[in-house]
Design a protein that fits this description.
Blueprint (H helix, E strand, L loop, with lengths): L6 H9 L3 E6 L4 E6 L4 E6 L5 H14 L8 E4 L3 E5 L8 H16 L15 E4 L2 E4 L6 H19 L5 H12 L1 H4 L7 E3 L8 E3 L5 E3 L5 E3 L1 H11 L4 H11 L10 H16 L1 H15 L2
Antiparallel strand pairs: 1-2, 2-3, 3-5, 4-5, 6-7, 8-11, 9-10
Length: 287
């Protein structure tokens, strides 16, 4: 293997199968057709530990036997090969089933808040941003220390948020023990559950892709679905509630759980998300 190895050569090496065609897609992705006609997905990971974290996350989610994920067919430190799932259209039946399966995934649990997927690195990623999986037992303090404040500090260091503005987010963190709602056991999270990582299959089943899997609070996955929009979200939530009803007041806590992805996007994409972070923080504390 060389640093210049392309997706076709990587897939042939990792699957042991000859390759007949390669079709490049964006973001380091390629569809690779094997001899015999099967097409698989190849994804290049250029950040240290990214492929290891994603592969471990997919396997951990699959091990729950709930929400489907693409099967991992091969991987090394730079390339991940998975099955290619033909895409379909969102529909009501699939949405309700997805909600039920997501509730069961969360109920499969995790050893701790911040627990990495078994075999995955502690220093992982959420999208293009680093994400450290540091275990903790108390969700409010863990969430502040390892999911909110690291990205807040980075945003301030880069000048995307001013120190005076950051104080508003810090105030939310100070109040997390009273804002967090009833205690929850650690759930097995996808961890980056925006609509782009929800694959509506042509077979009528939903699959989850590109996880940043870790142990966390189940409302965080649901809050991210709401933040970036999800087709038939009301039916997804109804299916979820059938299996694992959410604690009273969950709708008022959505903003608390959205601070993490909003700050990640502030770090990655700039001031527009900083403004949304500040507005969410003001709403949380009633200002």
């Amino acid at each position: 293997m060389t640093g210049n190895e392309g997706p076709g050569a990587a897939v042939a090496r990792l699957t042991g199968r000859p390759v007949s065609a390669v079709r490049a897609r964006s973001g380091g992705l390629a569809e690779v057709t094997l001899a015999g006609g099967r097409t698989v997905m190849a994804k290049r990971g250029d950040r240290p530990g990214a492929v290891s974290a994603e592969a471990a996350g997919l396997r951990w989610l699959a091990a729950a036997g709930t929400v489907a994920v693409p099967q991992v067919l091969g991987r090394d430190e730079r390339w991940l090969v998975t099955e290619l799932v033909p895409a379909g259209r969102p529909d009501a039946e699939a949405a309700t089933g997805f909600g039920r399966s997501l509730a069961a995934l969360h109920a499969a649990g995790a050893p701790a808040f911040g627990a990495a997927a078994p075999g995955g690195p502690r220093d992982a990623w959420i999208g293009l941003a680093p994400m450290r999986n540091e275990p903790g037992t108390d969700w409010p303090s863990w969430y502040a220390e390892h999911r909110v404040l690291p990205y807040l500090r980075t945003a301030v260091d880069r000048g995307t948020l001013r120190p005076g503005e950051a104080a508003m987010v810090e105030h939310v963190c100070e109040r997390l023990p009273e804002l967090a709602g009833p205690p929850e056991v650690p759930s097995r999270l996808h961890g980056d559950l925006w609509n782009g990582n929800v694959l509506w299959g042509a077979d009528g089943a939903v699959r989850l892709i590109d996880p940043a899997a870790h142990g966390g609070h189940r409302e965080t996955d649901l809050a991210m679905l709401r933040l970036f929009g999800c087709p038939y979200l009301d039916l997804v939530l109804a299916g979820y509630q059938e299996v694992a009803p959410l604690a009273a007041g969950w709708a008022e806590r959505v903003g608390v759980h959205q601070l993490f992805p909003l700050l990640v996007h502030t770090v990655l994409f700039g001031r527009g998300y900083a403004e949304q972070t500040l507005e969410t923080s003001r709403t949380i504390v009633g200002i």
